[in-house]
Structures are given as structure tokens and as C-alpha cells.
Batch of 2 targets.
Target 1
Amino acid sequence: MSQKLSDLLLALERDAVLETVKGRLGTNEDPLRVLEDCRSGMTLVGERFQRGDFFLAELILSAEIFKDAAAIIEPRLSRARADHSRGRVLVGTLMGDIHDLGKNILITLLRAHGFEVKDLGVDVPPSVAVEKVKESKAHFVGFSALITTAFPNMKQAVTLLQEAGLRGRVKVMIGGGVTTPEVRDYVGADFQTTDAMEGVAYCLKTTGGK
């Protein structure tokens, strides 16, 4: 384990990443710290992708490695979670976009911090997302985007939430590399970020957690 976990993920060394994760958990290290190192690796991957040093194939591979690592870490997170749910969160990628990397990272981090999270999936029609908010009585709903074609559907989802009388009880979050504060205002969301951990911090602050 001479090489940092984040660097191994950046190098797309799947077997080494999983071996390192298992090894660190085997020493009873805090699973949240192990997860954070994986997230840091994904941040580095994202930076290389934005610079053009990585292509879509590398991005997809890194996402699969992160997903495999998270599957090992998540069962150990129960020790770090609160006894009661901090809140209910729905997270999905709306119609017009099928990317799920950022969404999956956010879901894993939220669960690690004690939130009850339902994954809506990708290419979700706005009406379906709103219906799920109604059914679940969610406190937060997060929409992820990696391409701009999802923006109008984000806006439509917020409009439908308003028309259904649900907007006042749910915080709307948007995230993804193409989102900006201006997009947040266009959509009518409460919060925007390009960093999944910032999304977790927002949820914690809103619910009175740390």
C-alpha cells in the first residue's frame, strides 16, 4: 500500500484499488476515510477529463472501479452512520442525460453520512421524478447532469413540483460539471455544486448536522 489510494484510482488500477480498500478496512480504519480517498481519486480523474488528458473510456472505467470499491466499503459504513436517518433524499439524472458517475458518488457519500437515499436512475422523465418525491415525502431531491440537454427537464421538474404544491417542502439540488450558479437560477433550484461532498455538506447543514 505504498501508493496512495487516490493515485491508484487515477491510474485506473482496479485490482490494486480493491486490494488496498480491503487491506485498509481490514485494519479497522474508518470506512469514511477510505471512501473519501476514493472520492479524491475520482476528483483527479474528473480534472484530467476536463483538461482532455482522459477520454470518455477512462471516465467510464474509473466510475466502474469506484462503484466496485464503494460496494466493499458500504457494508462497513453502518458503524459510522447515525442510528436514525438524517433525512430522505432522491437522486437521479433526468431525461436527456444518461450519465450516472456524479450521481453514484453523491449517493454513496450521502448514505455514508446517514441519509436515506433512493436512486431514481438515469433518463428519468420529470413527471416521474415529481411523483417519486410525492410518494417518498423526500426532504431533498438532487438532479445530476453532464450534458446541457438535461437543463430544460430540470426546470420542468421544478415547475411540476410547484404545480403539485410540493416545492415548499423539498430542497432541490443540481450538480455536475456543466452546472453553474446561473443554471441553478434558470432551473429554480436551491443549491448547485460540481463537488459531491459539497452536496453532502449542504444536506447536513440544512438538517442541522455536521
Target 2
Amino acid sequence: MAVITFSQEFGSGGRDIAKRVAEQTGYFFADKGIIGDLLAQYGLVGFQRIYDSAPAFWESFDSQKMEQRKITIGMMNRVILAIAQRDRAVIVGRGGYLALAGYADVINVRIGASFDTRVARTMREQNIADLAQAESLVRTNDLKREAFMESTYGTRRERACDFNIVLDVDMVPASRAVPLIVGAAKELKKSKAITGKRVGSIAVEPVLHNVIEGIFAA
């Protein structure tokens, strides 16, 4: 089987591509909403509020907030690893490709698009008529993402070498991207030459395991 992580630029439509891949493969779909629910049930309430406060939150360095940051990062990574351990999962965002670096049965996908394309899509999807407002929203979300990635994983920019598949939707639309990624998952599933650690070897705490099972069952 396989786990597929998606990293997406805001407004690129990466979540929609990930959702369609999950539907066609029958994989469990875990986006920020699911991950946030799991974190809340696991014991970290208000993760989205913490994330959305970036970069202001992450630029605070007093001891209390540093400790809160470490707890947040640790719990988020444990949730991502626990989702992956069950296999047959699509995980969107939250640095999943870095949390699962080194696992042989994980396909890491990055979806990007030009700034203009992302602004246009944001205007359509969020019913924004003002171009400047949409541009500001895209830039703000880019800054939040960079601040979060830097504070969580020590990197502001994603490197192509960290991904198995890198797609620009200006050149490869969703209609072509989805079957390409689904095909890669099928090839990985059939491959008998894969070596290295597998997601099935991930150790999951009993409490978190029960939370994950409840979400999967629902």
C-alpha cells in the first residue's frame, strides 16, 4: 500500500487534487480539519488558532511560548505519524512530507501555481471581487506557511528533492495530475523492490491509536 502527502501553495487547488486522489484510491483523507479534530481529541485544543497566529506567535521567544510550541509540534507530528501508520492515507499539508521523511512507502507530492493563478482561484472560490484584497490574502497565507514551516521544521522553502512528484497546475491541470498521482500509488503498491523502513513500523501510543480508529471508523 502507500501513504501520499500533499504540500500545496495557497490557492493552487492542491487540496482538491488530493481529495480526488483519495476518492479514486479509496484512501483515508486527512486535511487540516481532520488533523485539527485529532489534535483536539488527543489533547491539544486550539491548534488552528495557534497556526493562524503565525508569524506573530512563532516570533515570540519567552520560555512559556517556546514550551507551547514544542508541545504543539510534537503532538502534530505524532498525529501525522499515527495516520500514516494505518496506511492507505492521503495527508494534506502540515509538513507531512517532512514528518514522514525516510519512509519507503510514502509518496510526497507538491502542488504549485503562479501567483496570478492562485489569486484568480482565490477570488473565485472565496467570492472576492477586489483584486488587491485577494492578492493580500494570498501573500498573507504564504507568510503564515513560511513562518510555520521555519519554526516547525527549520526551513522556509520547500526543496524539489524532498518530493517524488512536483506539479505546476498552470502546466499540468488537475485532470492530468490526479491520474498521474493515482498511477504512482498503484506502481508503489505493486513494487517488490522497495527497501527501507515502512509506515507500518511506526509505534503509536494507545490513546492516540484509539482516537485515530474512531476518526477512521466515522
